[in-house]
Write a structure and sequence with these properties.
Blueprint: E1 4-6, H1 15-19, H2 29-46, H3 48-59, H4 70-78, H5 82-100, E2 107-112, E3 115-123, E4 126-130, H6 139-152, E5 156-161, H7 173-182, E6 187-189, H8 192-201, E7 214-216, H9 221-230, E8 235-236, E9 244-249, H10 255-266, E10 273-278, H11 281-296, H12 301-310, E11 315-318, H13 322-332, E12 334-340, H14 344-350, E13 354-359, H15 365-370, E14 396-404, H16 406-422, H17 426-433
Length: 443
């Protein structure tokens, strides 16, 4: 059901050579880019009419308008299962606790007497948030996108989610209910690359969507390709690929827990990655044995879980020691990394590359997906070595405010002029000389 990679016996290679030995899904955003380009430009030129046409083509629904009526959003909340509502409210409450603490404050540094640099943090003016609605529906992604944007102080928030044939062309009612709980009333029934294009270019008319400064949220390869297409025109969070879980475990780990956690991510998508890294062959055997009955007892077996576990992106990786295991998980840079070892907190503290780290047997990835308070929009495909998950900081821009007096400028002018001339940019120096009668102040 799942392959093995045996890295025992020889010294582990370094850097890229080690990464090349590890499992990874094939996710060719560049190839998808050429397919989304005409879709994006069609939305640019035809706006809402193109969105309605693509809803028919890709989602099998006939829309009369793309923006979801406010009444439909309110009705979705009124009809929501009370237990689901309570769970969403708790998810929102915990996410707010964590994300509110992330808000940066303005700070002024006195560089020299009379010379200060202030860094102030300004939220993005308008964001477009994407909530997937393909194989599964993710109201939790609504929470994870909206809460940090709100806590950052973003004034204008719009959300797009694919239209659902089952619900008359509206996004899934649980998505709409989550929007209602969060106070988001600008929602569009649009999915895929066309939704990203709608946010990037904007659409006109009474059903139109004003352009956004930034687009965030997980999605399929077409969403990722559209984000790449618009990088530079709008801000993006990340090009999200298939979900990943890596588990670093030793002989103290419970194979029932490990198997369950691998399956929990495999059920997302046939390209989902499930990786166990362990120095215990006995644990590897026990987990492999435990996968069979647990897979058989759940849903989405043939279309998602089995192909995900059997795919080249998933494996049990055997290492000689936890030290080697740490090198492997750092080289892998998982979206989600669980540490199920003795002294798990100490090993977790040494990890450098992961989107989020889950410590010990009582912090499974599923907790982070919904109610830990952390954010589940995380870097995939090894991008955790250079990128972070979605947070309040994602929606803030740091702006430096430089304030110098005449004396403070005079004190440093000779250095500025010297550096400007060293770079053959004499006009840079002249901009200072002009303030002092074209003479460099003496020191």
């Amino acid at each position: 059901m799942i392959s093995r990679i045996d890295l025992r016996g020889d010294a582990l290679p370094e850097g890229g050579a080690l990464r090349d030995l590890l499992p990874r899904a094939e996710f060719d955003v560049e190839a998808a880019l050429e397919k989304v380009r005409p879709i994006c430009e069609d939305v640019h030129h035809r706006g809402t009419a193109a969105l309605i046409e693509y809803a028919q083509k890709f989602d099998g629904v006939e829309l009369s308008q793309v923006r979801v009526p406010t009444e439909a959003i309110k009705a979705a909340l009124e009809q929501l299962d009370p237990a689901v509502r309570a769970a969403l409210e708790e998810s929102i409450r915990r996410a707010r606790i964590v994300h509110r603490e992330q808000r940066r404050t303005e700070h002024t540094t006195q560089v020299v007497p009379g010379g200060t640099v202030t860094e102030k943090w300004v939220p993005v003016e308008r964001v477009g948030l994407y909530a997937p609605g393909g194989r599964s529906v993710y109201p939790s992604s609504v929470v994870m996108n909206v809460v940090p944007a709100q806590e950052a102080g973003v004034e204008s928030i719009a959300l797009a989610s694919p239209p659902q044939k089952e619900f008359g062309g509206l996004p899934h009612p649980t998505i709409l209910a989550a929007c209602a709980l969060l106070g988001v009333d600008e929602v569009y029934a649009a999915g895929g690359a066309q939704a990203v294009a709608m946010f990037a270019y904007g659409t006109s008319g009474p059903d139109g969507c004003p352009p956004a400064n930034m687009v965030t949220g997980p999605g399929n390869i077409w969403v990722a390709a559209a984000k790449r297409y618009f990088t530079g025109k709008i801000g993006i969070d990340t090009e999200a690929g298939p979900t990943e879980i890596a588990v670093l475990a030793d002989s103290t780990a419970d194979p029932v827990h490990v198997a369950a956690d691998l399956i929990s991510q495999a059920e997302h998508d046939p390209l989902a990655a499930a990786v166990l890294v362990t120095d215990s062959a006995e644990l590897a055997d026990a987990v492999e044995k435990e996968l069979e009955p647990q897979v058989a007892a759940t849903k989405h077996v043939e279309d998602r879980i089995k192909p995900a576990l059997a795919g080249k992106q998933s494996a049990i990786v055997l290492v000689d020691s936890l030290e080697d295991g740490l090198k492997v998980v750092d080289a892998y840079g998982a979206e989600h990394l669980e540490i199920q070892t003795a002294d798990a907190a100490a090993w977790a503290a040494r990890v450098r590359n992961a989107g989020a780290i889950f410590v010990g047997p009582w912090a499974p990835v599923s907790l982070g997906d919904y109610c830990a308070g952390s954010n589940h929009v995380l870097p995939t495909g090894g991008c955790a070595c250079h990128s972070s998950g979605l947070s309040v900081q994602s929606f803030l821009r740091g702006i430096h405010i430089v304030d110098y007096t005449r004396d403070a400028l005079a004190e440093v002018t000779h250095h500025v002029v010297t550096l400007a001339e060293a770079e053959d940019l004499p006009a840079h120096g002249a901009a200072l000389k002009a303030r002092f009668g074209w003479k460099v102040p003496t020191q």
